[in-house]
């Protein structure tokens, strides 16, 4: 039986902290319900133990510090593909990622395929990051289309007025052995980690990581109904933890008055 008032405070405070983290995750999912290519996340809870405790009994309740968020796990299910009028808006039908280059030269990965052309006719993301490998479209090219294998096709008119279609670049789809371990750096971008493994152009079985859907945008995979239910649950759990702390504070105050 836990008899220490300080232990009770720790338990209640841990619940408050864990549910605040839970609220942050759920709120982020709801805020990005309309963000193209966004992947929602789930908070996983575990018991918090005093690892530095020298108590011989591993089950001694004095070792328990309450609850903690052990991990934030992403939901990698594909979002709904919606049509778009832009020839540079593309989506991935499969588990892969588009590779882009950050300003510092670091490669990053995204599911948000709302690309466009910059002033130098290079393909960039909605935030202005270059597609990797970089693609610069030649002057005179028109009638663009992206094939399912990522090949970028364009039409050219020769001196005789004849039209010819040829490839001018490629959108490469990359994938990871453990994509759930990618590092989310914001703006719908991820970077590789030792746990995710390096980016690979093909699956271990030699198959591609997906196909490019032309003139389409992948929607967020946030389930708003589920997210709202999670929000209510998190808010109630947070309120209970706050009420427990308030009760302990009132009990401590009463005990202090009795001592006087």
Question: Your description of this structure?
Answer:
The structure is a single chain. The chain has 260 residues and is of the alpha+beta class. The chain has two domains: 110 residues, no CATH class; 138 residues, no CATH class. Helices cover 24% and strands 30% of the residues. It is built from two helices and 17 strands. The strands form seven sheets. Strands 5, 6, 9 and 13 form a four-stranded antiparallel beta sheet that branches. A three-stranded antiparallel beta sheet has the order 10-11-12, with no helix packed on it. Helix 1 packs antiparallel against helix 2.
Structure, briefly:
By secondary structure, this protein is of the alpha+beta class. It has helices at 5-31, 224-259; strands at 41-49, 64-74, 81-83, 90-93, 97-101, 107-110, 116-117, 123-124, 130-131, 142-146, 151-157, 163-170, 173-174, 183-186, 189-191, 211-214, 216-218. It folds into two domains: 5-76 and 222-259, no CATH class; 81-218, no CATH class.
